[in-house]
Design goal:
This protein has 9 helices and 9 strands. It is of the alpha+beta class and 286 residues long. The protein folds into 3 domains: 5-83, Alpha-Beta Plaits (2-Layer Sandwich); 86-151, Alpha-Beta Plaits (2-Layer Sandwich); 164-263. The strands form 2 sheets. Strands 1, 6, 7, 8 and 9 form a 5-stranded mixed sheet that branches. Helix 5 packs across helix 6 (195-204), helix 5 packs antiparallel against helix 7 and helix 8 packs across helix 9. The radius of gyration is 30 Å and the shape is rod-shaped.
Length: 286
């Protein structure tokens, strides 16, 4: 049965790079461990490599993804290939199944990646890959596709994905949008429900000031709590990979730009001709 070990990286100082753990196979004695350790320390960009025979684990510090790839090749040539690794990424910006598909497609297209499973609900990706691929390289690949990714840091006190910060932000944006939208709803729909309220508004404030107020409140909704749709949707549209944020940004932006022009057309535009529709009564048969 195929064993996927958990890949661990710990950020260190700028000189020593990252600490990486590899699970090696084929070691049966102290001489095997010594040969594997010697092979790792001989690789350029690798330092402080140590091999534990009891756990079959090699711990080393690498300067970058290239050094890790060279280290994996070195132990493979020595006869102790590293087991495939499992890396978990935290992925931001995914909003629909299309986003999930793009991330999975990008990861599985990378040589050395055996499988990639992306979970929209937990905003995470689990990748099984060869030891020569650094987890940071996977995160950089996903980030380049427009979905900021980082290596998941496992915490003992929390085994699941933390949605607390995202939920708080969504709740705050919802309340702000509610406060700004409610007056627009009351002014516009209240007049349809209660004709007397409609006439009172126009007599008290006038039609044009009401339109201006609604325009400002609606603009505030798009610029403040609704800007997330534009900051995520427009870049995705420009990349040729539109998603749900792109649809909301296009729909809301188009409606916001067209609606004022209908109420207040520029002076250079000729007036629209009025169209009257006359209904002809059906002629009675003799």
């Amino acid at each position: 049965m195929k064993d996927h070990s958990q890949h661990k990286t710990e950020p260190l100082d700028g000189r020593s790079g990252q600490q990486v753990d590899l699970t090696l196979t084929g070691m049966s004695c102290a001489s095997c461990a010594g040969r594997a350790e010697k092979a790792l320390n001989a690789v350029q960009g690798v330092s402080n490599a140590s091999v534990n025979l009891a756990t079959s684990r090699a711990t080393l510090q690498v300067d970058g993804p290239d050094a890790l790839a060279r280290a994996a090749e070195a132990v493979a040539r020595a006869g102790y290939p590293a087991q495939p690794l499992e890396t978990r990424l935290e992925v931001q910006g995914m909003t629909c199944a299309s986003c999930v598909g793009r991330v999975e497609k990008a990861l599985t297209a990378l040589p050395g990646v055996d499988s990639a499973i992306v979970n929209l609900a937990t905003a995470s990706a689990t990748i099984h890959h060869q030891a020569g691929i650094a987890p940071q390289a996977l995160a950089d690949l996903v980030t380049a596709k427009g979905y900021p990714a980082a290596i998941c840091r496992e915490q003992a006190h929390h085994a699941g994905h933390d949605h607390g910060g995202t939920a708080t932000q969504i709740r705050r944006n919802f309340l702000i949008a509610l406060v700004l939208t409610l007056p627009v709803f009351i002014m516009e729909m209240g007049g349809h429900l209660i004709p007397a309220f409609h006439h009172w508004q126009h007599m008290r404030f006038g039609q044009q000031p009401l339109w201006i107020l609604q325009f400002l409140l609606t603009g505030a909704v798009l610029v403040w709590p609704g800007r997330v749709f534009f900051s995520l949707g427009i870049p995705a549209l420009l990349r040729g990979a539109p998603e749900m944020n792109s649809l909301v940004a296009l729909g809301a932006g188009r409606r916001f730009c067209i609606r004022p022009s209908r109420h207040s057309p520029p002076a250079c535009c000729p007036p629209m001709p009025s169209m009257s529709i006359s209904r002809r009564r059906p002629s009675s048969s003799p």
